[in-house]
Design goal:
By secondary structure, this protein is an alpha+beta fold. Helix content is 31%, strand content 33%. The chain is globular.
Length: 165
Amino acid sequence: MINTDRLILEPLSANESAFLIELINTDGWKKYIGTRNIHTAEEASVYIKKYSEDKNTSILSVKLKETKLPVGIITILKRDYLKHKDIGFAFLPEYTRKGYAYEASSAVLKDLKKKNKNELIEAITVPENVSSISLLNKLGFEYDKEILVDKKTMCVYILDQQMSC
């Protein structure tokens, strides 16, 4: 578990299926991440279980400290097509532009740095996702290159944990 001033981050659990269904079916998720075809609690539970059992993946539920309400997720995973672990983030639309993604991502990156001081971290996004690119820049990521993933152009950003705070 990771705590910040306003947030609690802990592994996404099966009892958060309704939250996950809402999140992955938002317009932003579909536009920038892709359709997952998860519409039932059972499908969401299978999705959560699959990733919780993968030792190369961590999906953290981001909850408001005051209410314990889940508002987003931060992911750390190793993708086959990237050399290093990748950080990702997604938030319900009504909780964007409030600093939660920056606060949660910063806390996760600091935690990773404590554990793996010399590790490089990557992030990917589609070129038109200006909000994510802005957040990555604010977190200290630098543009590295473009790659093609499933016939889709993705921008790769990289963070040198030795150089970041």
